[in-house]
């Protein structure tokens, strides 16, 4: 059986974790990767790819084109390339997953690395012109209005094009009906949880916000407990967690004084207060110290913590060993995922 080429887009810094998750699926062989992307070949059914949780989205590989220079002449190259894209076979593969009209409408998403003398909107318009001229299909500016979505990923002078497998991006979770400032992207939450998937015991998020981490943990099969000092955030968490009722507990608490027994958690996974969503002052530094002490107390020996923060130096880590610090790109900043083990 021939392989179907696919690629996933993920958060910068999480490429290795997303590659591990993809490789764990039956029939999937990871073949390469780069900045924010993982390439793979798939033998057999594509449907399991729609269950990936650590990636932002996954696409059928269409084509690559060289010569996408930073000058505006690249727009004509994109028009000509768009007119030459062969979409028949990829659409047939897509129709094995969902229903599509004979002449689907399409939207385009584009991202690029480095400065260029043209905008993302101009990139999309140029490719759309070529594709419309070749197929007669209707171009939609907004993804929500289109039957299919093409993704362009431009790095240096190379552009990679893909056809999205799902009807909507994978990182856009249906459960997330309530939002609050500082809410974590679900695919990042899932990547943090994936990293501790082999550690036994219940999971804890002491700063759960709208509940993304506990919900993702429950959907991955772990019993979870989430808490927050803010009552509005907890109300949003309960609204988001309707489908995991019975697998997640929610409590209102001070994360610096957790009302749970010592050594009762197998893992602690949390998006700590950081960056532009909170006021950075001495009170936050004191909170981090108290959080570190409480995390060390509630973790069972050998338990793991995965903590997202821009201030790893403020964490009180006595009684724990720092295993790694992984920098990612998120909300225009570069926080770190700090991995700790309870001694």
Notes on the structure:
The protein has 343 residues and is α/β, with parallel strands linked by helices. It has eight helices and 14 strands. It has helices spanning 15-23, 73-84, 88-95, 120-135, 186-194, 212-219, 231-240, 282-298, and strands at residues 4-9, 28-34, 37-42, 57-66, 106-112, 148-155, 158-164, 203-205, 224-228, 248-252, 265-271, 299-309, 320-327, 336-342. It has a seven-stranded mixed β-sheet with strand order 2-3-1-4-7-6-5. Strands 10-9-8-11-12-14-13 form a seven-stranded mixed β-sheet.
Would you tell me the overall average pLDDT?
Answer: 94
Query: What's the number of helices?
Result: 8
Helix content: 25-40%
Q: Could you tell me the strand content as a percent range?
A: 25-35%
CATH architecture of the largest domain: 2-Layer Sandwich
Examine the coordinates and then state which fold CATH places here, giving the name of the CATH topology of the largest domain.
VC0802-like
Helical/strand content category: alpha/beta
Report the biggest beta sheet as strand number plus sense, adding barrel if it closes: 7 strands, mixed
Intertermini distance = 48 Å
Mass-distribution shape? elongated
How many distinct domains?
A: 2
**Order of the strands making up the biggest sheet:** 2-3-1-4-7-6-5
Total strand count, please? 14
Question: Could you state the order of secondary-structure elements as H and E?
Answer: EHEEEHHEHEEHEHEHEEHEEE
The first-level CATH class of the largest domain is given as Alpha Beta
Unreliable segments (pLDDT under 50, ≥5 consecutive)? none
State the oligomer.
single chain
Radius of gyration: 22 Å
């Amino acid at each position: 059986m021939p392989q179907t080429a696919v690629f996933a887009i993920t958060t910068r810094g999480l490429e290795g974790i997303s590659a591990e998750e993809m490789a764990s699926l039956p029939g999937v062989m990871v073949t390469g990767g780069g900045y924010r992307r993982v390439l793979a070949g798939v033998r057999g059914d594509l449907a399991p790819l729609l269950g990936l949780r650590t990636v932002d989205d996954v696409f059928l590989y269409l084509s690559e084109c060289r010569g996408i220079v930073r000058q505006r002449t690249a727009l004509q190259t994109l028009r000509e390339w768009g007119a030459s894209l062969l979409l028949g076979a990829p659409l047939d593969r897509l129709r094995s997953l969902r229903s599509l009209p004979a002449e689907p409408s399409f939207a385009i998403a584009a991202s690029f690395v480095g400065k260029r003398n043209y905008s993302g909107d101009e990139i999309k318009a140029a490719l759309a012109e070529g594709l419309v001229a070749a197929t007669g299909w209707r171009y939609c500016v907004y993804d929500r209005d289109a039957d299919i979505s093409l993704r362009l990923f431009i790095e240096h002078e190379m552009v990679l094009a893909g056809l999205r497998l799902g009807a909507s991006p994978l990182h856009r979770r249906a459960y997330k009906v309530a939002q609050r400032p500082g809410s974590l992207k679900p695919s990042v939450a899932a990547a943090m949880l994936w990293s501790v998937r082999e550690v036994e015991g219940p999971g804890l998020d002491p700063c759960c916000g709208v509940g993304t981490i506990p919900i993702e943990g429950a959907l991955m099969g772990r019993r979870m407990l989430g808490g927050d000092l803010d009552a509005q955030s907890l109300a949003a968490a309960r609204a988001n967690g309707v489908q995991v009722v019975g697998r997640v507990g929610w409590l209102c608490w001070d994360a610096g004084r957790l009302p749970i027994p010592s050594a009762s958690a197998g893992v602690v996974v949390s998006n700590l207060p950081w960056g532009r969503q909170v006021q950075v002052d001495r009170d936050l530094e004191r909170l981090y110290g108290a959080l570190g002490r409480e995390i060390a107390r509630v973790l069972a020996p050998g338990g793991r913590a995965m903590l997202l923060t821009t201030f790893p130096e403020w964490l009180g880590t006595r009684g724990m060993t720092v295993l790694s610090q992984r920098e990612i790109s998120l909300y225009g900043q570069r926080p770190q995922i700090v991995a700790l083990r309870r001694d």
